Predict the structure.
Amino acid sequence: MRILYYDCFSGISGDMNLGAMIDLGVDKNYLIEELSKLNLDEYRIEINKEERKGIIGTKVNVILEHNHSHNHEEHYHRNLTDIEEIIYNSGLRTEVKELSMNIFTKVAEAEAKVHGKPLYEVHFHEVGAVDSIVDIVGAAICFYCLKIDKVIASKIELGKGFINCAHGVLPVPAPATTEILKGIPVTLGNILFEATTPTGAAIIATLTEEFIENVDFKIDKVGYGVGQKDEGNIPNVLRVFIGETEEKNSHYIMECNIDDMNPEVYSYVIDKLFEVGASDVYLTPIIMKKGRPATMLSVLYEKKVEDRLKDIIFRQTTTIGTRKYKVEKEFLQREILYLNTPYGEVRVKNSYLNGERIKYKPEYEDLKRISEEKNIPLISIYNIVQNLIDKHHNI
């Protein structure tokens, strides 16, 4: 499993997150090209290496361009509807659009609660500005670019002091940040300024599945996103790791519904899926909309073979889309032993629960081979072998 771990000892902001993602390996040209699909001509991005307390990382600056037809004040008065129009009318991938809107909605909900306004009447001020659009959509682009299976994070440092914003002087953490991070472990006061912004809080709160201090994975890459400040003794950087961990018994199921394919093709597709590593493949008859009979193809698999399975499904069937969900496999401990019979050796599968054998069966392929070689009905071979197994209790 591919893990992304946020070490937020100095907080998190949108620009620190983008810097850390580029430092981890996201191609900056790819990021800029994807962001251009938003069709916003109001900014440019500067990406440089900078140092904080001896640590070199990547610094991302979103610089507003004032030589265009839009009034600068418009940046600070977009609401959630405006953000939706920008994102959903863009050329970005669907999953990037959805994740971006999830992050923006989290900020909007916090701002609405803090200011006592309906969700779609909230004007985002700083959050509605172009730099926050870039930070949030950029976070979604980077997440999918890195192909992460799970995001985990440390406690989040919030900082201390006061900040000047559109509403006046506010205490650190900002009220919206506090609202977003409800239920999430934080630390306060180790940094002498605003360490975590509402945008940074929304990004990590949306992406992260688990907040823990003791992590257990093999480190693959480390990236540092440089913040705006260079004060105090603690470096103003966001440290992010990519690591690999084995999650025992963790599998996925990929499914698709098919109503327009020659049934003869299914057997071929099933064989191909097993060849590239599917743990199980099965078909279920279903009824789709307008009463159309169809077949649901389900594939049980481990994450490492997902791309190969998806390639076969899209190339070898008529479906145009799949869905997947995570499952936990539980199974009995198994052992294969060999039984000598008058017709040759037969494999026997034994299954154990807490050390006790509770199931056993002869291997079908062995019985089939004997039946064909000896010209004896399969059911007769099965009964003979089953009787031998019953006599040999230790097999």
Notes: Residues 2-244 form one domain. The radius of gyration is 28 Å.
